[in-house]
Amino acid sequence: MERQSDYLEMTLPAKPQYVGIARLTVSGLANRLGFSYDDIEDIKIAVAEACTNVVNHAYEETGNMNLSCNVFEDRVEMVVADTGQSFVLEELDQNLGPVDSKKPIDELKEGGLGLFLIDTLMDKVEISGENGVAISMTKFLQRDEVENNVDGVSTETNAQEQK
Amino acid sequence: MNLSTEVIEKADKKKILRVAGEVDAYTAPELKANLNPLTEEEGVEVIVDLTDVSYIDSTGLGIFIGALKSAENHGATLRLTGLNERVKRLFTITGLDEVITIDDENTEEAK
Protein backbone atom coordinates (compact mmCIF):
# COMPACT_ATOMS: atom_id res chain seq x y z
CA MET A 1 0.00 0.00 0.00
CA GLU A 2 2.64 2.46 0.97
CA ARG A 3 6.31 2.23 1.55
CA GLN A 4 7.43 2.54 5.12
CA SER A 5 10.93 3.83 5.18
CA ASP A 6 12.23 3.57 8.71
CA TYR A 7 11.38 2.35 12.16
CA LEU A 8 13.03 3.08 15.46
CA GLU A 9 12.27 2.02 18.96
CA MET A 10 13.59 2.53 22.45
CA THR A 11 12.70 1.34 25.90
CA LEU A 12 13.21 3.67 28.83
CA PRO A 13 12.65 3.38 32.56
CA ALA A 14 9.36 5.06 33.49
CA LYS A 15 11.12 7.74 35.55
CA PRO A 16 10.94 11.52 35.23
CA GLN A 17 14.59 11.92 34.27
CA TYR A 18 14.06 9.82 31.13
CA VAL A 19 11.20 11.91 29.74
CA GLY A 20 13.79 14.37 28.47
CA ILE A 21 15.66 11.58 26.68
CA ALA A 22 12.50 10.61 24.78
CA ARG A 23 11.98 14.29 23.99
CA LEU A 24 15.50 14.73 22.67
CA THR A 25 15.17 11.61 20.55
CA VAL A 26 12.01 12.69 18.76
CA SER A 27 13.37 16.21 18.46
CA GLY A 28 16.40 14.88 16.63
CA LEU A 29 14.30 12.62 14.47
CA ALA A 30 11.79 15.34 13.53
CA ASN A 31 14.62 17.71 12.77
CA ARG A 32 16.21 15.15 10.47
CA LEU A 33 12.90 14.55 8.71
CA GLY A 34 12.56 18.23 7.90
CA PHE A 35 9.77 19.30 10.21
CA SER A 36 9.45 23.01 10.88
CA TYR A 37 10.68 24.51 14.12
CA ASP A 38 7.15 24.85 15.46
CA ASP A 39 6.22 21.29 14.50
CA ILE A 40 9.34 19.95 16.17
CA GLU A 41 8.38 21.77 19.36
CA ASP A 42 4.85 20.34 19.12
CA ILE A 43 6.23 16.83 18.69
CA LYS A 44 8.57 17.28 21.67
CA ILE A 45 5.71 18.39 23.90
CA ALA A 46 3.31 15.65 22.76
CA VAL A 47 5.82 12.85 23.31
CA ALA A 48 6.89 14.31 26.65
CA GLU A 49 3.25 14.49 27.74
CA ALA A 50 2.66 10.87 26.78
CA CYS A 51 5.81 9.79 28.64
CA THR A 52 4.87 11.89 31.66
CA ASN A 53 1.52 10.10 31.77
CA VAL A 54 3.34 6.79 31.89
CA VAL A 55 5.68 8.03 34.61
CA ASN A 56 2.83 9.36 36.73
CA HIS A 57 0.08 6.81 36.17
CA ALA A 58 1.19 3.53 34.67
CA TYR A 59 3.01 1.78 37.46
CA GLU A 60 2.63 1.54 41.17
CA GLU A 61 6.31 0.80 41.48
CA THR A 62 8.72 0.58 38.60
CA GLY A 63 8.28 -0.23 34.94
CA ASN A 64 9.31 0.74 31.46
CA MET A 65 7.96 2.96 28.74
CA ASN A 66 8.38 2.14 25.11
CA LEU A 67 8.78 4.79 22.44
CA SER A 68 8.50 3.68 18.85
CA CYS A 69 8.53 5.81 15.73
CA ASN A 70 7.37 4.87 12.28
CA VAL A 71 8.74 7.16 9.64
CA PHE A 72 6.67 7.52 6.49
CA GLU A 73 7.29 9.76 3.54
CA ASP A 74 4.66 12.24 4.57
CA ARG A 75 4.45 11.78 8.32
CA VAL A 76 5.88 10.38 11.50
CA GLU A 77 3.86 8.16 13.78
CA MET A 78 5.06 7.92 17.36
CA VAL A 79 3.72 5.47 19.91
CA VAL A 80 4.35 5.71 23.64
CA ALA A 81 3.29 2.54 25.40
CA ASP A 82 3.49 1.04 28.85
CA THR A 83 2.64 -2.31 30.35
CA GLY A 84 1.09 -0.97 33.52
CA GLN A 85 -2.44 -0.77 34.79
CA SER A 86 -4.66 0.80 32.18
CA PHE A 87 -7.09 2.25 34.69
CA VAL A 88 -6.46 5.74 33.39
CA LEU A 89 -8.09 4.87 30.11
CA GLU A 90 -11.62 5.16 31.43
CA GLU A 91 -10.92 8.58 32.88
CA LEU A 92 -9.19 9.86 29.79
CA ASP A 93 -11.90 11.18 27.57
CA GLN A 94 -13.84 13.11 30.14
CA ASN A 95 -11.69 16.10 30.81
CA LEU A 96 -10.16 16.99 27.50
CA GLY A 97 -10.33 20.71 27.26
CA PRO A 98 -8.66 23.96 28.15
CA VAL A 99 -8.87 25.58 31.56
CA ASP A 100 -12.23 27.11 32.38
CA SER A 101 -11.47 30.68 33.39
CA LYS A 102 -14.90 31.09 34.96
CA LYS A 103 -14.13 28.52 37.60
CA PRO A 104 -12.85 29.68 40.97
CA ILE A 105 -9.09 29.35 41.13
CA ASP A 106 -9.36 26.84 43.94
CA GLU A 107 -11.19 24.43 41.66
CA LEU A 108 -8.60 24.47 38.91
CA LYS A 109 -6.84 21.18 38.49
CA GLU A 110 -3.08 21.04 38.44
CA GLY A 111 -2.99 18.03 36.16
CA GLY A 112 -4.98 16.74 33.24
CA LEU A 113 -3.78 19.15 30.58
CA GLY A 114 -1.34 16.67 29.08
CA LEU A 115 -3.78 14.72 26.94
CA PHE A 116 -5.49 17.88 25.86
CA LEU A 117 -2.15 19.19 24.63
CA ILE A 118 -1.34 15.96 22.77
CA ASP A 119 -4.74 16.10 21.13
CA THR A 120 -4.29 19.73 20.15
CA LEU A 121 -0.71 19.59 18.92
CA MET A 122 -0.82 16.35 16.91
CA ASP A 123 -2.68 15.70 13.67
CA LYS A 124 -3.98 12.29 14.64
CA VAL A 125 -4.17 10.67 18.06
CA GLU A 126 -5.28 7.19 19.01
CA ILE A 127 -5.35 5.73 22.47
CA SER A 128 -5.66 2.04 23.09
CA GLY A 129 -5.26 -0.06 26.16
CA GLU A 130 -5.14 -3.77 26.70
CA ASN A 131 -1.94 -4.58 28.47
CA GLY A 132 -1.20 -1.04 29.50
CA VAL A 133 -1.89 2.16 27.61
CA ALA A 134 -0.58 3.00 24.15
CA ILE A 135 -0.87 6.50 22.75
CA SER A 136 -0.27 6.79 19.03
CA MET A 137 0.49 10.27 17.74
CA THR A 138 0.88 11.25 14.11
CA LYS A 139 2.32 14.46 12.73
CA PHE A 140 2.30 15.20 9.03
CA LEU A 141 5.08 16.93 7.20
CA GLN A 142 3.70 20.20 5.94
CA ARG A 143 4.34 20.02 2.24
CA ASP A 144 2.09 21.44 -0.43
CA GLU A 145 1.53 18.14 -2.16
CA VAL A 146 0.65 16.32 1.02
CA GLU A 147 -2.96 15.66 1.86
CA ASN A 148 -3.39 16.65 5.46
CA ASN A 149 -7.01 15.97 6.16
CA VAL A 150 -7.12 12.74 8.05
CA ASP A 151 -9.72 11.75 10.49
CA GLY A 152 -8.28 12.09 13.93
CA VAL A 153 -9.46 12.69 17.42
CA SER A 154 -8.87 16.38 17.04
CA THR A 155 -9.74 17.25 13.49
CA GLU A 156 -11.43 20.51 14.35
CA THR A 157 -8.61 22.08 16.27
CA ASN A 158 -5.97 20.94 13.88
CA ALA A 159 -7.85 21.78 10.75
CA GLN A 160 -7.74 25.37 11.87
CA GLU A 161 -4.08 25.27 12.61
CA GLN A 162 -3.13 23.79 9.31
CA LYS A 163 -4.65 26.50 7.20
CA MET B 1 17.56 19.14 30.58
CA ASN B 2 18.34 21.25 33.57
CA LEU B 3 16.67 23.99 35.46
CA SER B 4 18.02 26.74 37.59
CA THR B 5 16.18 29.25 39.73
CA GLU B 6 17.21 32.41 41.51
CA VAL B 7 15.17 34.53 43.88
CA ILE B 8 15.65 38.27 43.78
CA GLU B 9 13.97 40.38 46.47
CA LYS B 10 13.35 43.75 44.94
CA ALA B 11 11.52 45.33 47.81
CA ASP B 12 9.79 44.26 50.96
CA LYS B 13 6.77 42.95 49.15
CA LYS B 14 8.13 42.16 45.74
CA LYS B 15 9.91 38.96 44.88
CA ILE B 16 11.20 37.90 41.50
CA LEU B 17 11.93 34.28 40.69
CA ARG B 18 14.20 33.94 37.70
CA VAL B 19 13.88 30.57 36.04
CA ALA B 20 16.22 29.23 33.37
CA GLY B 21 16.21 25.95 31.46
CA GLU B 22 13.52 23.39 30.77
CA VAL B 23 10.48 22.74 32.92
CA ASP B 24 9.28 19.15 32.60
CA ALA B 25 8.34 16.19 34.78
CA TYR B 26 11.91 15.94 36.03
CA THR B 27 12.59 19.59 36.85
CA ALA B 28 9.10 20.72 37.87
CA PRO B 29 9.47 19.61 41.51
CA GLU B 30 12.45 21.94 41.85
CA LEU B 31 10.46 24.83 40.40
CA LYS B 32 7.61 24.07 42.77
CA ALA B 33 9.94 23.92 45.77
CA ASN B 34 11.36 27.33 44.92
CA LEU B 35 8.18 29.04 43.79
CA ASN B 36 5.53 28.00 46.27
CA PRO B 37 7.16 29.36 49.44
CA LEU B 38 7.32 32.82 47.81
CA THR B 39 3.55 32.85 47.39
CA GLU B 40 2.85 32.09 51.03
CA GLU B 41 3.27 35.60 52.39
CA GLU B 42 0.36 38.00 52.52
CA GLY B 43 0.52 41.01 50.27
CA VAL B 44 3.61 39.90 48.42
CA GLU B 45 3.88 40.34 44.65
CA VAL B 46 5.57 37.34 43.07
CA ILE B 47 6.95 37.80 39.57
CA VAL B 48 8.25 34.76 37.73
CA ASP B 49 10.70 35.65 35.00
CA LEU B 50 10.66 32.97 32.31
CA THR B 51 12.93 34.77 29.84
CA ASP B 52 15.45 31.93 29.85
CA VAL B 53 12.96 29.09 29.86
CA SER B 54 13.19 27.28 26.52
CA TYR B 55 10.71 24.48 27.14
CA ILE B 56 7.67 23.89 29.27
CA ASP B 57 4.93 21.27 29.24
CA SER B 58 1.80 20.49 31.21
CA THR B 59 3.73 19.51 34.31
CA GLY B 60 5.16 23.02 34.41
CA LEU B 61 1.78 24.57 33.72
CA GLY B 62 0.45 22.59 36.68
CA ILE B 63 3.12 24.13 38.92
CA PHE B 64 1.90 27.61 38.01
CA ILE B 65 -1.72 26.63 38.67
CA GLY B 66 -0.61 25.38 42.09
CA ALA B 67 1.33 28.57 42.76
CA LEU B 68 -1.65 30.68 41.73
CA LYS B 69 -3.86 28.81 44.17
CA SER B 70 -1.31 29.25 46.91
CA ALA B 71 -1.02 32.97 46.17
CA GLU B 72 -4.81 33.34 46.29
CA ASN B 73 -5.03 31.53 49.59
CA HIS B 74 -2.32 33.65 51.16
CA GLY B 75 -3.36 37.02 49.79
CA ALA B 76 -0.40 37.28 47.46
CA THR B 77 -0.32 37.90 43.72
CA LEU B 78 1.42 35.98 40.95
CA ARG B 79 2.58 37.32 37.62
CA LEU B 80 4.58 35.73 34.80
CA THR B 81 6.92 37.68 32.59
CA GLY B 82 9.40 37.15 29.76
CA LEU B 83 7.66 34.22 28.08
CA ASN B 84 8.96 33.36 24.64
CA GLU B 85 6.45 32.69 21.88
CA ARG B 86 6.47 28.94 22.29
CA VAL B 87 5.99 29.07 26.04
CA LYS B 88 3.30 31.74 25.70
CA ARG B 89 1.51 29.59 23.12
CA LEU B 90 1.03 26.76 25.61
CA PHE B 91 -0.57 29.13 28.09
CA THR B 92 -2.88 30.35 25.33
CA ILE B 93 -3.83 26.88 24.05
CA THR B 94 -4.67 25.67 27.53
CA GLY B 95 -6.58 28.83 28.42
CA LEU B 96 -4.27 29.53 31.34
CA ASP B 97 -3.55 33.01 30.01
CA GLU B 98 -7.11 33.86 31.06
CA VAL B 99 -6.43 32.78 34.61
CA ILE B 100 -2.83 33.75 35.29
CA THR B 101 -1.52 37.28 34.80
CA ILE B 102 1.06 37.26 32.03
CA ASP B 103 3.06 40.29 30.92
CA ASP B 104 3.28 40.92 27.22
CA GLU B 105 6.83 42.13 27.53
CA ASN B 106 9.47 42.11 30.18
CA THR B 107 8.74 44.48 32.99
CA GLU B 108 11.40 46.86 34.13
CA GLU B 109 11.67 45.16 37.50
CA ALA B 110 12.47 41.81 36.05
CA LYS B 111 15.25 43.03 33.86
From TrEMBL, chain A:
Q: Which Pfam family is one of those matched by this entry?
A: HATPase_c_2
Keyword Cell wall biogenesis/degradation in the entry? The reply is no
What region holds the Histidine kinase/HSP90-like ATPase domain? 12-139
SUPFAM superfamilies attached to this UniProt entry: ATPase domain of HSP90 chaperone/DNA topoisomerase II/histidine kinase
**The entry's keywords:** ATP-binding, Kinase, Nucleotide-binding, Serine/threonine-protein kinase, Transferase
Q: Which InterPro entries match?
A: Anti-sigma-factor_SerPK, HATPase_C_sf, HATPase_dom, RsbW
Q: What is its EC number?
A: 2.7.11.1
- Please tell me which top-level EC class this enzyme sits in: transferase
Instruction: Give the reaction(s) catalysed.
Output: L-seryl-[protein] + ATP = O-phospho-L-seryl-[protein] + ADP + H(+); L-threonyl-[protein] + ATP = O-phospho-L-threonyl-[protein] + ADP + H(+)
Give the source's domain of life in one word.
Answer: Bacteria
- The answer on whether this UniProt entry bears the keyword Signal reads no
Q: Which GO terms describe its molecular function?
A: ATP binding; protein serine kinase activity; protein serine/threonine kinase activity; sigma factor antagonist activity
Function, as annotated, reads: Negative regulator of sigma-B activity. Phosphorylates and inactivates its specific antagonist protein, RsbV. Upon phosphorylation of RsbV, RsbW is released and binds to sigma-B, thereby blocking its ability to form an RNA polymerase holoenzyme (E-sigma-B).
HAMAP family on file: Anti_sigma_B (MF_00638)
UniProt similarity note: Belongs to the anti-sigma-factor family.
Name of this chain's protein: Serine-protein kinase RsbW
| Organism per entry | Marinococcus halophilus
Automatic annotation (TrEMBL), chain B:
Keywords tagged on the record:
Phosphoprotein
Q: What does this protein do?
A: Positive regulator of sigma-B activity. Non-phosphorylated RsbV binds to RsbW, preventing its association with sigma-B. When phosphorylated, releases RsbW, which is then free to complex with and inactivate sigma-B.
What is the name listed in the Swiss-Prot or TrEMBL entry for this protein?
A: Anti-sigma factor antagonist
The entry sums up its family as follows:
Belongs to the anti-sigma-factor antagonist family.
Task: Give start and end of each STAS domain.
Answer: 4-111
UniProt organism field: Marinococcus halophilus
Q: Which SUPFAM superfamilies match?
A: SpoIIaa-like (SSF52091)
Q: Gene encoding this chain?
A: rsbV
Matching CDD domains, A to Z? STAS_anti-anti-sigma_factors
A Gene Ontology MF term for this entry? Answer: anti-sigma factor antagonist activity
Q: Name one Pfam family in it.
A: STAS
Question: Which PROSITE patterns does the record match to this protein?
Answer: STAS (PS50801)
